[in-house]
Amino acid sequence: MTPQPDHRAIETAFHAGLWSPQAPEGHDPKRFSVYRNNVQHGLVRALAARFPVVERLVGPEFFAAMARVFAAQNPPRSPVLLDWGDGFPGFLTAFPPVATLPYLPDVARLEWLRGLAFHAADAPVADPAALANADPDRLTLTLAPSAHAFASPFPALAIWQANQPGARPAPLPAGPQFALIGRTPGLDVTCEALGADQTTLLRALLAGAPLARAAEGIDPTPLLALLLRHGLITRIGETA
Amino acid sequence: MIPSVLPARAGLGFKPEHYAEAAAALRAVGFYEVHAENYMGAGGAPHVMLDRLHADHAISVHGVGLSIGGAGPLDDAHLRRLKTLLDRHQPESFSEHLAWSSHGAAWLNDLLPLPYTDETLATIIAHVDQVQSVLGRRMLLENPATYVTFASSTWPEVEFLREITRRTGCGLLLDVNNVFVSAVNHGFDPEAYLAGFPLAAVGEIHLAGHEADAQLGAALLIDSHSRPVAPPVWELYAQVLARTGPLPTLIEWDNDVPAFPVLLAEAARAETLLERARHDAAA
Hints:
heterodimer; A: alpha+beta; three-stranded antiparallel beta sheet; B: alpha/beta; eight-stranded parallel barrel; two-stranded antiparallel ribbon; globular
């Protein structure tokens, strides 16, 4: 009698078959291929749900083939698929077939940040009245966990906007483009175009710098207005 | 230990695109079910929607990520995430699968089959014990739809499930479509399978649509959750209810999801059979 393979050996053989054309020994290749298709199709759909504009820009068939390459090289490390795909923009940068679309990785990065904002922790919005009473030289602002700064040498935000459902054709601006990404109290994820200096300011605020230091040589009003409008300031305080 | 008890009515898998209709259709169904892993983000709309639905409906959290049937240890980090989610939303039921889906550090994103042996039985019993003890809940374990079997299996699936529930005290989630799909795929009689099934342990039923395989046709059915429930599955479901009385029954439709009224119509069909079972039980 031949010894039976143990549980772990069976899993190892099964796992190997999921990412190779060869079914594990003892299994009908056509039946086994159902599992291979389920795994690969499921991952492609998960990635497409996270990067819908990238899929639209390259087309669904190309996207599926590309997503399979990404998934084989970067399989999820956790069952929480909403955390999977942070390596996709970097993968696109190094994937030769999309080298002719140099803006694609930045569009992917924008979509990734939008997803982070969608799932970010909740935080109550600070009372803006506190701004009026604070000492401007010591003012510190805590931004919502959903707030992110986005920068691209390409008009990546305009490309993303032009590929939203119902978007009307419009001439693309020249790059670079900068944006504030965040989630409003109404739970909508918003992307607001910013100037370069406002993005520098946003980055400094996100890093925890007091407003006076972050805004050295920069008028903070446009960014503050945006942050207030979208409820993205969660704490208004003063340094000691 | 918190039990897993849903109302003995028809329920639907909740799809965010149906949120407005589901929230407005007050108590049109007895419960909504969600996949645990889709609600493991820190905050935002998913949790708000779930809270709002929970105000008017029972909620079932159905995990696809624990890999209870895996040879290796359970993922502690994932078990903690699950505990956080269940503590936050306090759903009426928690269920998982007799399947594995991770290998080493890699997550394989499907419910994969396992051999039914003394070795795998001992592993699964230890895993279910651990899940129930960490979560402080009685869980339901779902029978799988499978496309292959293992020459090394020494236990029939029904006896395997019975032994797990006997040794751990967990309940079972009976997926009638999975029974039918596996019966066709492996050439056994679904009625005989159900005749031996430990129905007293069943806390929930799943019904879903299936499709014929693109390569092998009707000889291999795929548990696709992409279509209406098939007639023979309704028939098996009615036979089960005749023996058990009404049980919480989920319509699962996860791919090619139709408009909300189509889902409500499927749920209404289950509700008709549940009503008959309630009537028969009272007679």
